[in-house]
């Protein structure tokens, strides 16, 4: 599925988050194995036939009929067969084994595991291995109308103001069993023959091309058959019945290419059509395994209601509208990048995920890690000026280094049995960390070796399933690099099987440096995990500064330290060129001081932007973990006063965002905000509202980032520009510049005292039904108002039928409220407490309660807030999964509170405030930072 969004994608695209809903349900450890099918069967083929009546598309019924014939083999002689069928959706009317109809008493479905168990005792004597057997199931089923999983119904309003219904699918990870009985696990691959009957005025799409259609005019039904699929997993099957139309793209090696959607938005398909064909060509070239060897067509389809961001069904990729459809005049550059990278992500899956599939969900990073890596690596071939490989660092690596620094973080390969545990594997570790680890491996081995190894991996495991050892074996076979261990598998073992990552500490004794490692955590730990860590570095005397990412040294699990000797006359050293290694670095005082001096030099002494971003990100997080003082953070990062580069500032804003969320808008918060406004003045002046440059992607990203923060921090010029542009929009009905709308919409409402400004934007949202990117942008801005009455009314719309907010977007609306302003946190919490039953009922499958309380509690820092949350969680009758999420949220809030207690005094001292946050802004350390910044600015003139 599409990648999880990172901090880089502002709330304007937060609703594109592609993750499976995160729920937590307690299951006895001894029972978890029962959720997995026994390794006793091998699937060969499915013949699936469905019949969907016209009543489904009028909203009168959700019922459909089906028959599935499954050919399979026994790997061992048994007296039963087990597969999946969800009892809430499927009613079995007949079941045959090898043409013998079984009694209803011979089969049953377990309510918890969804496992359909068929007793074959009467056939046991005749069962042998390596022979085909048939299981034929007739069933009556229903489309899901309460969520967006399985075979479900979506709707939209057409240009004639009529509601139109469509039936579509979302099967990953465990939802195919809701649509038809099947062996619903990734390792059970098979071919599929698909036949479907549906109203004749509609069209149907499937993974493969249709081969035959017949229409019964009397019944008003058409029956269509499709080409047999290659061997694939059940979660990759997809079918859509709708009135959609399609735009044809350029065929690639005989592969037909189309983009489909509701006809009203047909003119926004162009970018997807152009990008898709190019991405397929680039992936064909990289993998040396042409797409046309498996599939003869590629359809991309925009679905009005879609739970994920996108889904990689083989040959039939599905998306949210905002993740596929782009209006050149109205959609921002950020959306164009998002659409390009999501397409690259999903198309990568056609190889890494579809052709070669993870054997079990515990190693889903083999699917999602590769897709995350290549969504940047391949998309850069489509748009080389976007600096996507550089953006990978701040969007993927930095974000997951934060997530992975907690004691309870997951390992890349970890057990997952229940649907809840499986869903929870679809998080930042599998996506971001998976991609980051692959990026590290690519840089250690070299690009050519990495590519050859992946080509071998795909060829060796094609149409099958894989485990991490298969990947390392393929890479090892083409390896030309000397490793510090016998095999690549040895090197990678702890990176894959252990959670977390290392902190490398560098201590100096003259020119002699000592490197040690420990697990990096925000809290104290007794973890003894160590890794094989590739060390690249640059010194002040290196001519090819930061260009080489090949390791010059290694830290290993079996050695306590590694020694490096600085070249003669070197004045500084920085580890981890371009931060290709997945770790953080801390230095002793002398080395940090030398780095600070280098950063104050002209052109930052040649320290490149990615390593400046690394330094800033490491500094803030080392201080957060109490590994160094915040005074070190602020004095070393004072170089930012003269740095107008996107990447270091992106890292800096993340660091300041953490601080401001914890201290709020008390005296300390205002001191931090004021100093940050001063520090970013040159950045702000470099990207004025009057100078938009849509052809320069990084400039545009930087402009939006800088203006967003300037307005948030209260820059009067910024607020005035926003107010002027919003006033012009209200008067002329001409929208602001497409790239500045996130800034204008949010801050116009944040600083407005007129409720009509909010009403105007809400109406603009309702009228933008044919521009999904605009709707998502507005939804995220509506929560920026400080008017608590408006915020309550906004949240109420999320639980009101036909309000205009789709279920897929509700959580984005909530997030905009508790993230927009301090006032929104209390409003969101009170709304949750008062309406938790309605929220749970309306958004049960999305685990809305759990997600909401997690997001809200992240903003809690006081004992009063935490006590209120504890009392609510103690309420009887709350859903079990919510209570589990809430308890984790309480722990998070208590962590925030402890952080404030630990660091508030240190920060007050730096900013010249007393322990209560009183006093003037301008203590000695703070003034030192200002003086340093001014001196550096003078030297650069």
Automatic annotation (TrEMBL):
InterPro entries: Aminopeptidase_N-like_N, Aminopeptidase_N-like_N_sf, ERAP1-like_C_dom, M1_APN-typ, Peptidase_M1, Peptidase_M1_aminopeptidases, Peptidase_M1_dom, Peptidase_M4/M1_CTD_sf. Its main location: membrane. The record marks 431 as: Transition state stabilizer. It catalyses: Release of an N-terminal amino acid, Xaa-|-Yaa- from a peptide, amide or arylamide. Xaa is preferably Ala, but may be most amino acids including Pro (slow action). When a terminal hydrophobic residue is followed by a prolyl residue, the two may be released as an intact Xaa-Pro dipeptide. It is a lipid-anchor; GPI-anchor. It holds the Pfam family Peptidase_M1_N. The active site is at residue 346. This is Aminopeptidase. It comes from Exocentrus adspersus.
């Amino acid at each position: 599925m599409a990648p999880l969004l990172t901090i880089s994608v502002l709330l304007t695209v937060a609703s594109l988050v592609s993750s499976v809903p995160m729920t937590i349900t307690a299951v006895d450890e001894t029972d978890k194995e029962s959720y997995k099918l026994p390794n006793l069967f091998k699937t060969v083929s499915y013949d699936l036939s469905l019949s969907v009546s016209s009543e489904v598309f009028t909203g009168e019924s959700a019922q459909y009929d089906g028959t599935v014939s499954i050919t399979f083999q026994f790997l061992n002689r048994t007296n039963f067969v087990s597969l999946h069928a969800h009892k809430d959706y499927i009613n079995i009317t007949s079941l045959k084994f090898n043409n013998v109809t079984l009694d209803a008493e011979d089969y049953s479905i377990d309510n918890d595991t969804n496992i359909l168990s068929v007793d074959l005792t009467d056939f046991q004597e005749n069962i042998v291995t390596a022979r085909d057997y048939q299981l034929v199931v007739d069933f009556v089923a229903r489309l899901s109308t309460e969520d967006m999983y399985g075979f479900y119904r979506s709707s939209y309003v057409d240009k004639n103001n009529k509601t139109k219904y469509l039936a579509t699918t979302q099967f990953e990870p465990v939802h195919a069993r809701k649509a038809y009985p099947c062996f619903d696990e990734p390792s059970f691959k098979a071919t599929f023959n698909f036949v479907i009957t549906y109203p004749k005025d509609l069209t149907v799409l499937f993974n493969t091309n249709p081969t035959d259609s017949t229409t019964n005019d009397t019944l008003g039904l058409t029956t269509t058959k499709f080409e047999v699929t290659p061997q694939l997993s059940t979660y990759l099957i997809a079918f859509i019945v709708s009135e959609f139309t399609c735009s044809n793209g350029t065929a690639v090696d005989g592969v037909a290419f189309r983009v489909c959607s509701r006809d009203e938005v047909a003119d926004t398909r162009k970018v997807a059509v152009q990008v898709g064909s190019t991405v397929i060509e680039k992936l064909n070239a990289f993998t040396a395994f042409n797409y046309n060897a498996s599939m003869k067509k590629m359809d991309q389809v925009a679905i009005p209601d879609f739970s994920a961001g996108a889904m990689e069904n083989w040959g039939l990729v599905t998306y949210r509208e905002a993740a596929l459809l782009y209006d050149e005049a109205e959609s921002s550059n950020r959306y164009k990048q998002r659409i390009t990278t999501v397409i690259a992500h999903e198309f990568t899956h056609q190889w890494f995920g579809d052709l070669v599939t993870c054997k079990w969900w515990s190693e889903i990073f083999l699917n999602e890690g590769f897709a995350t890596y290549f969504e940047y690596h391949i998309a850069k071939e489509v748009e080389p000026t976007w600096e996507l490989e550089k953006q990978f660092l701040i969007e993927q690596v930095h974000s997951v280094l934060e997530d992975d620094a907690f004691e309870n973080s997951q390992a890349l390969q970890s057990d997952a049995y229940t649907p809840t545990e499986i869903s929870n594997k679809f998080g930042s570790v599998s996506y971001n960390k998976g991609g980051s680890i692959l990026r590290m491996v690519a840089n250690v081995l070299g690009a050519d070796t990495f590519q050859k190894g992946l080509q071998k991996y795909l060829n060796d495991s094609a149409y099958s399933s894989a485990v991490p050892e298969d990947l390392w074996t393929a890479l090892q076979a083409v390896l030309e690099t000397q490793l510090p261990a016998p095999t690549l598998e040895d090197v990678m073992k702890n990176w894959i099987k252990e959670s977390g990552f290392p902190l490398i500490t560098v201590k100096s004794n003259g020119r002699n440096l000592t490197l040690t490692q420990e697990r990096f955590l925000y809290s104290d730990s007794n973890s003894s995990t160590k890794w094989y860590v590739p060390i690249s570095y640059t010194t002040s005397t290196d001519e090819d500064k930061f260009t080489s990412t090949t390791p010059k040294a290694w830290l290993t699990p079996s050695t306590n330290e590694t020694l490096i000797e600085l070249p003669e006359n070197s004045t500084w050293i920085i580890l981890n060129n371009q931060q290709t290694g997945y770790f953080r670095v801390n230095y002793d005082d002398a080395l940090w001081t030398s780095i600070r001096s280098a950063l104050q030099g002209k052109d930052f002494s040649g320290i490149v932007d990615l390593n400046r971003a690394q330094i800033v990100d490491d500094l803030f997080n080392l201080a957060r973990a109490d590994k160094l003082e915040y005074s070190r953070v602020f004095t070393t990062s004072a170089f930012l006063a003269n740095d107008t580069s996107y990447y270091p500032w992106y890292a800096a804003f993340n660091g300041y965002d953490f601080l401001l969320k914890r201290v709020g808008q008390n005296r300390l918060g205002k001191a931090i905000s004021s100093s940050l406004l001063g520090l970013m003045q040159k950045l702000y002046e470099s990207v004025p509202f009057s100078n938009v440059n849509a052809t320069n992607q990084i400039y545009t990203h930087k402009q939006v980032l800088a203006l967003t923060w300037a307005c948030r921090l209260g820059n009067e010029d910024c607020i005035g520009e926003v107010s002027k542009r919003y006033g012009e929009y209200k008067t002329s009905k001409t929208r602001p510049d497409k790239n500045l709308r996130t800034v204008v919409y949010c801050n116009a409402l944040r600083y407005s005292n007129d409720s009509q400004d909010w009403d105007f934007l809400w109406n603009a949202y309702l009228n933008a039904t044919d521009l999904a990117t605009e709707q998502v942008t507005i939804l995220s801005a509506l929560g920026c108002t400080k008017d608590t009455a408006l915020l309550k009314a906004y949240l109420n719309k999320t639980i009101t039928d036909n309000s205009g907010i789709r279920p897929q977007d509700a959580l984005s609306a909530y997030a905009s409220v508790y993230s927009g302003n301090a006032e929104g946190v209390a409003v969101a919490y009170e709304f949750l407490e008062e309406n938790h039953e309605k929220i749970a009922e309306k958004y049960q499958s999305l685990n809305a309660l759990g997600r909401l309380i997690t997001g809200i509690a992240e903003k809690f820092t006081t004992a009063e807030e935490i006590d209120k949350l504890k009392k609510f969680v103690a309420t009887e009758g709350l859903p079990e999964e919510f209570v589990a999420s809430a308890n984790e949220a309480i722990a998070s809030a208590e962590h925030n509170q402890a952080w404030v207690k630990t660091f508030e005094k240190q920060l007050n001292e730096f900013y010249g405030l007393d322990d209560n946050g009183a006093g003037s802004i301008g203590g000695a350390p703070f003034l030192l930072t200002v003086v340093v910044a001014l001196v550096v600015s003078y030297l650069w003139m």
